[in-house]
């Protein structure tokens, strides 16, 4: 291939990329408009329809099925995560920090059960256990996604003849399960590991700043012991990032919900919103989880009433609430989408027929 031909192909490729970027940029203002227009339809009528549809579609029963499958998948997933971390001595502190930050959301009784599994796994390290538990957790977690897909088909009122086959559903469920796990890994990395990265970057920036402003006759001393303690960036950036990591984690949870809303149902209306309901579901999940944690801590005596199985009952209740919130977010999207289509159809009618 000659140089002229290579240059011509490169130019054609750049033109194609430019056209795609131009099309995407044109859609951004429209997407922002649709995003904020969603909240104009959140009113008492919409909320009433959401409550009625939640009861008619039996979302409470479907979320109970999701919670049961989540319980089956949770402990193999914990085994695989802890087995992977236990194989590396450098990640032991990360595991302890995960337990500390998990206490913000998870009830105390659930923390005790998880901590017991963690301590046992740290004693016995096994690569075979990691591989086996990872595969089992993927398969079982695909069952959780499968239950969510069944619930989403109910929410979207998909006719029986439009439903996917079993193997199509299973493959999509496995793909969504893997995507969910990857997003959770990214969220955990941002929440648990990013503090160290941000502090290192702030320190490096402060070193460059102090060395750059150092007098020439003291440049050697600045290189050996740069006065980074007085740097404003080192004082403010890590603390600011600690305040931002939970909103970022909620954003990743909302992204995960949006992916499930998009690819979960066998059929959906193209104009049905995705992101706004996912954001509402993520925020509602965080609020309700914290309220439930406070309730269990101060008012719930599950261990006294139920004995040793009290922690598992609390875990089931928490997973049930999380599942129900996710399904309610999907129902809000569908209800608001129907209201948007009704408004659009009424606007297209002649004024005499409205």
TrEMBL record:
PANTHER family documented for this protein: INNER MEMBRANE PROTEIN YHJD (PTHR30213), UPF0761 MEMBRANE PROTEIN YIHY (PTHR30213:SF0)
Main location per the UniProt record: membrane
Keywords: Cell membrane, Membrane, Transmembrane, Transmembrane helix
Listed transmembrane segments: 129-150, 171-193, 244-263, 275-296, 308-334
Membrane topology: Multi-pass membrane protein
Coiled-coil region(s): none
NCBIfam families (alphabetical): yihY_not_rbn
Protein name from the UniProt record: Ribonuclease BN
Record's GO cellular component terms: plasma membrane
Subcellular locations according to the entry: Cell membrane
UniProt superkingdom: Bacteria
